[in-house]
């Protein structure tokens, strides 16, 4: 009998079947290293999603009936009447969204790639399935200070990881690294920890020497990959209700500036950082409503990161102090 692994992401149970014990060990290590999960299964013995791992990538042939759906330097997505195919040179994930199943076929070389490279492929495969269960990805770092949930949303290179690391080092709690999940609850839109590991500029270690010990080479070789729990294990929080939404942007300005933005502008920026919102038409409308509700429960800001933060990254806490205090007062009242 093939090994079976069980996971839960905010009460969505995922069953993972592996073709052999050696492959199961690799998958188990990857899941533990790459993703935060909830405590226990929501309904033991029941699975919302099934993912099957096989090590027969070399024998897979793309069906002639497929058409290219999306293309990027690292991944191509194909589609036919029944499946989506997330494909790269060493792995393919065949997704059947209607039955909540995926078959992930890997080559031996896949497991030799950098952690970030493997993580991104596995994460995308999971996210396409989780979307159908009310869990929506946002490219953001989640932080919590004095019960106030904060989301730093932005693409790679926006400065959100550097900003987050500085705040965590100063005592802030963290929710997730680079990608969080959004879920609607009776109390509002909740942000939930999902992806482990943040990519950061090696120059940041000049200010925070402890990063040298833990950071590993990232996918592009220009950044390093860090599991924050290895340094700050007591700062982790699994979920929060966001009250502040901040969009960082790296600039050439000397001084960092912070200013509020309003509904439409904030929504557009959220959409740009929301995974799969224009891909899966069946959930696009629902996902858009979640983003609108998130806007309505938060105050939104843009922060233009200047050279002053490059020289003294710890000053970010002072810059955010005013808006964080205001949000905390509203939570208390």
Give a verbal description of the structure.
The protein has 333 residues and is an alpha+beta fold. The chain folds into 2 domains: 4-133, no CATH class; 135-329, Rossmann fold (3-Layer(aba) Sandwich), CATH 3.40.50. 28% of the residues lie in helices and 32% in strands. It has 8 helices and 21 strands. The protein has helices at residues 21-34, 115-130, 160-169, 210-214, 263-272, 281-297, 307-311, 316-332, and strands at 4-9, 12-18, 49-54, 67-71, 76-79, 84-88, 91-96, 101-106, 136-138, 140-145, 148-153, 173-176, 180-185, 188-193, 198-200, 216-217, 224-226, 239-240, 242-250, 257-261, 299-305. It has an 8-stranded mixed beta sheet with strand order 1-2-3-8-7-6-5-4. α5 packs across α6. The longest helix is centred in the last third of the chain and has 17 residues, at 281-297. The model has no long low-confidence stretch (mean pLDDT 86).
Ordered list of secondary-structure elements with their pairings:
Elements: E1 4-9, E2 12-18, H1 21-34, E3 49-54, E4 67-71, E5 76-79, E6 84-88, E7 91-96, E8 101-106, H2 115-130, E9 136-138, E10 140-145, E11 148-153, H3 160-169, E12 173-176, E13 180-185, E14 188-193, E15 198-200, H4 210-214, E16 216-217, E17 224-226, E18 239-240, E19 242-250, E20 257-261, H5 263-272, H6 281-297, E21 299-305, H7 307-311, H8 316-332
Parallel strand pairs: 2-3, 3-8, 11-19, 19-21
Antiparallel strand pairs: 1-2, 4-5, 5-6, 6-7, 7-8, 9-13, 10-11, 10-12, 13-14, 14-18, 15-17, 16-17, 20-21
Helix pairs in contact: 5-6
